[in-house]
Amino acid sequence: MLFNSIDFAIFLPLVFLLYWFATKESIKKQNLLIVAASYMFYGWWDWRFLFLIMFSTVVDYLIGISLSNETNEKKRKMLLWISICINLGFLGFFKYFNFFIDNFTTAFSFFGGEISGSSLNIILPVGISFYTFQTLSYTIDVYKKKIDATKDFVAFSAFVSFFPQLVAGPIERASNLLPQFYNKRTFDKQKAVDGLRQILWGLFKKIVIADNCAESANIIFNNSENFSGSTLVIGGILFAFQIYGDFSGYSDIAIGTSRLFGFDLMRNFAFPYFSRDIAEFWRRWHISLSTWFRDYLYIPLGGSKGGTWMKVRNTFIIFIVSGFWHGANWTFVVWGALNALYFLPLLLSNKNRANIDIVAIGKNLPTANELLKMTYTFGLTVLAWIIFRADNIAHAWNYLGTIFSRSLFSFPDHLPKTTFLLILIFTLIEWLGREQQYAIAIMGFRWPKKLRLTFYYSIILAIFLFSGQEQEFIYFQF
Fold first, then answer.
1. Are residues 164 and 11 in contact, defined by beta-carbon separation less than 8 angstroms?
2. What is the pLDDT of residue 106?
3. 3 state DSSP class of 66
4. Which of 47, 156, 234, 330 has the most CB atoms around its CB within 10 Å?
5. Which alpha helices (DSSP H) does 223-301 contain, by range?
6. 419: pLDDT confidence band, cut at 50, 70 and 90?
7. What's the CA gap between 27 and 19, in Å, rounded?
């Protein structure tokens, strides 16, 4: 079920009414309703995948209890590895089996050998990377005794399958989300209104910005051999705004929807395209995944406490694994490695935390130096996104090769003026609201009522005007 669909527009109010009117007197009933609604939401794509999420839930629930009851360290470690192997085993099979088979047979052919390997017709379960990491972090935290194992199976099931963030995050930690299922929720009008406002902005990002950018970006990327370097640059910029509007839009809708039910999810995006260096960008882009890899991979590997070699090694590991997490394609691996190269000079010069606060706090405009740094960082990001979006390494190489040719200085063959006007308006609103949790969190509060209503009705009108065929969110494939 898509957030930007008629189905969800009917589903959400029905669940909301049942949640606050039919089950409000009982936490257990509310949690049961959330589980039922979440399974319906997820099963809307393919009901067979429900067995996978059920199995993952039962396994990690039982392992969590076993870890809390076990004192023998060897047995506790064995239980942890069972959870890791089962979770990553399912993820590896569904997401990477064909990738490894194809590359294994190709490697043998390259060295003169012959081996036959058959690919399987495997359907990738929607959101498997997200809920796998969420349940995995639970067992790791229980093992490390950072949290207590839950004995409330219904609450744990709701935590794993919570429909707003089930298929594309944010990837929640049990320490933040799970306790919220234990406590009584009371309806908070202000919280609900704020949630609706964030949903509205998320829909604007997805339908008005991302889907418009996608139309032209797809034309350019799918026919890149027919376009000039200047046009391919435009394609890269359009994809950069497409993936940002698409993914951060989903996160806004997920967070806003959660607030309608009295839950607070972690922030997943913090205006990343206003970053002044790549380190700042990665603190602001897909925060739930970046912090997951930091806490469960980078720090256990030693982080940046060791010597230069260890810093370089750990940086490449975390970025390459992050790239591979996105999918079974070498483009994602190269994208991760390129971001590691971007990041290394900052890390080795101890400048990776030079820009912690949002740019130009309390000011209307950035300084010339800040603007230059933001432009440079955005340019590096667009180059990386081109590799990310390309069909394969050869496509990325040819695409970049055309950009760095004389045709870069020619007039673009394809220039969607309306889309760029929308991007300009969108960027201006994001800039004005960059110090808030999301761009329109408090925008218009002090405006005259007519102006405020005009602003919000304009957003709603734009969403309806640009609503067409339902477009899946990009990160569903990851």
1. no
2. 56
3. helix
4. 156
5. 229-260, 278-284, 287-293
6. very high
7. 10
Question: Which residues, other chains included, contact 79 with Cβ-Cβ below 8 Å and sequence gap of 6+?
Answer: 63, 66, 67, 70, 143
Under the banding of pLDDT at 50, 70 and 90, the label for residue 302 is confident
* Phi, psi (degrees; rounded to nearest 5) at 183: -95, 150
Integer Cα distance of 357 and 206 in angstroms: 27
pLDDT for 90 equals: 85
Q: With 80 as the cut, is the pLDDT of residue 121 above it?
A: no
CB atoms within 10 A of CB 61: 22
Chain segment 422-476, per-residue pLDDT in tens = 999 999 999 999 999 999 999 888 888 899 999 999 999 999 988 866 566 666 6
3-state helix, strand, coil in the chain (%, to 5): 70, 0, 30
- Extract long-range pairs of 309-315: CB within 8 Å, 24+ residues apart: 311/347, 311/348, 312/344, 312/348, 315/340, 315/343, 315/344, 315/347
Predicted pLDDT of residue 24? 82
Rounded Cα distance between 134 and 118, Å, is: 32
Based on its alpha-carbon atoms, the radius of gyration of the chain, rounded to whole angstroms, reads: 23
Q: What is the mean pLDDT of residues 348-362?
A: 90
> Is-contact 238 216, C-beta < 8 A?
yes
Query: Angle at CA 182, nearest 5°, toward 176 and 188?
Result: 80
Question: Could you tell me the maximum CA-CA distance found in the chain, to the nearest angstrom?
Answer: 75
Indicate left, alpha or beta for 263 from its phi (over 0: left) and psi (-120 to 50: alpha): beta
| Other Cβ atoms within 10 Å of 428 Cβ, number | 11
Cα separation of 169 and 236, whole Å? 25
Catalytic status, residue 326: yes
Instruction: Find the angle CA(43)-CA(37)-CA(196) to the nearest 5 degrees.
Output: 115
In this structure, what are the phi and psi dihedrals at residue 29, rounded to the nearest 5 degrees? Answer: -65, -40
Choice among 286, 326, 395, 414 that is catalytic? 326
Give 366-379 pLDDT, tens digit per residue: 999 999 999 999 99
Q: Give the burial class of 85: count Cβ atoms within 10 A of its Cβ; 0-12 exposed, 13-18 middle, 19 or more buried.
A: exposed
Residue 280 tokens, joined: 């700042």
Distance of CA 460 to the CA centre of its chain: 24
